[in-house]
Every structure is written in structure tokens, then in C-alpha cells.
Amino acid sequence: MLKYSIKRIFLALITAFIILTLTFFLVKSLGIQDTSFGQKEHVRIAFFANQINLGYVVRFDHEVSGYGRLLATLTDSEGVWYYYERPLIEQYGAWLKNIVTKWDWGTSTVIEPNVSAIEIIKQRLPVSLKINIVSVVISVPLGIALGIWAGLKKNTWIDHTISTLVMIFISIPYFVIVSLMMYFLCFKNQLLPSIWPSPNATTGYKIAGYIIPVVSLSFGSVCGYTRFVRAELCEVMSSEYLLLARTKGLTKNQAITRHALKNAFVPILPSILAEFIGVFGGSMVLEKLYGINGIGDLYISAINNKDYNVLMVDMAIFTTVGLLAGIILDLSYGFIDPRIRMGEKK
Predict the structure, then answer these.
(1) pLDDT tens readout for residues 187-225
(2) Where are the beta strands (DSSP E) in 142-227?
(3) Most buried residue, 101, 127, 244, 250, by CB count within 10 Å?
């Protein structure tokens, strides 16, 4: 397992490096955006000074042909300066050097000018974590309970009712649920906040603000776990070893508790672990619709405003979370079911 774990982590690091490299070249191929355009001269000079410090821009005291794209011509107390965009490969080298040597991902150029991109992420990340962790804590036990209930009541009206509701709600995108809840509960009846509460809001108002995001995120997870648990439990209930357990004298409840649920949860528990890791991903559309200042909303804002440094840090988080969830999922199978671990060793 140790050898396999090291191998998976190494491959995940390589994958993350490739994804971020491709993202950098795709984003930077759009060109450096002069976000200070239209501002006073000293503001634009400060903007390009930051770009020079990052290694993305170079300035000359004269025009240079064939070097790169001319971004601006500005005048300060020292004279006239010509600001050119460095070749893409040089920008990439500077970007890697800053990260490896100083862990410097650059500063924001639009969202919060001259503020470290890492600091902006640190401010936004806790909000996304709180919402998604609460939704997982609610959706996992509720989905499992409904799945067990439907599985034990197979082919009864209870099973048919739960299965029908699951199929209906799993087909509805969560952002549609958000929109409907906001319309009926916020705008029409004014029962809940129509936007994410500010830090200065009262405790009750903040708690009320969690209802729409948590419920909308939980719908899909509850339906998914209900369907998954029901399918696994129904398969186990019809297995030969469970019938053998009944013939040995175990009651139905004993057979279900000792054998059916235990074996049904082998493929279910890893997905729960992966979901707990995956909560870091947040929800972009939800955060944008409900005005939540999380990393999902930040990602969309960084794209729209061409704030490339913030975008790269946000992308690094989403990439790391996705790869980490995959590693946890694969490793958890070996810990939950020893047969899988022994099979790997052989």
C-alpha cells in the first residue's frame, strides 16, 4: 500500500503540473490586459511595474522591433518608457521560478489590485468550506437512511415513492432549485435572505442564509446516495451467503445488520470519503447566484475580469482537490476491503 500510495501521489503531482502548465499557456495566450487603462499615468506605471516584477513585462527607453507586443508607452520623471510583453515561454519560466523559490503566485490586478492572490484565496476559502461541509454532513446520513429504507421495503409503495422522488429531483440541476427557492422563499414571501448575509449580520440571519445554499447542494447528493445504497442493498439481500446465514438460524434483522449492511457499504464508504474531500471544490454557479464570496464566485470573477494570477491559484486549488479526492477514493478501498489490498500486493 505504501508503494502504491507513493506512486499515486507522484502521478497526481505530475498531472497537476501538466494541467496548470496548459492552463497558464491558454490563459496567457490571450495576452496581458492593461487593467489600469483609462486611469492616471502613475496608476498605469504602478501596474506595469508589478508586471515587470513578476517577469511578464520588460521596458525599454526606446522602441524595439520584433521583441514582443507593445503594451503601452508611458512617461515618468525619468523620461518615456516602452513596455513590451515578454515571450510566453519567458513568462512561464518566471511564473515557475516565483512559485518554486518564493511561493509567490503573483498579485491580483483587477479584483483586489496589488493584493497577493494567495491572500485573496485565504479570505474566500472558509466560506465555501462551511457551506459544503454542512451540506455533506446533512446529505450523507439522509441519503443513506432513505436508501436503506427503500432497499428493505423493496417493491412496496415506500420503495416506489422514494425511487420516483429520487428520479425527479436528480434530474433537476441544483441551480434551478436555487432559483426556485430564491423566487418563492426570498422574493415572493420574503422568508429567507435573498443574498448571502454580510459578516456584520445577526446570528439568526446568518443561519437563515445557509438554508438555500445547503438545501440546493444537498438535493443531488441525497438522491445519489439513496439510489446507490438501495441498489447495493438489494443486490446483497438477494445473495446466496445471506440466504445461508438465514438457514443457520439468524433472524432477518441479524442477517441484515451483520452481513447485508456491512457488505453493501464496501463500495459506498469510499464515495463518502471522496465527497468529504471534494467539498473544497465549492459551487461556482450557486455562489454567483446567491452572492456568496467563495472561491467558486472568485473563479468566475477572475475569468471575466482577466485577473490571471488569481485564476491560476483558484485553478490550482480545484485541480489539487480533484486529484486528492481520487487518491483518497482509491486508497480507501484497500483499507475497507482487505481483499483489494492483498490483490494489489500479489
Answers:
(1) 888 888 888 888 888 888 889 999 988 888 888 888 888
(2) none
(3) 127
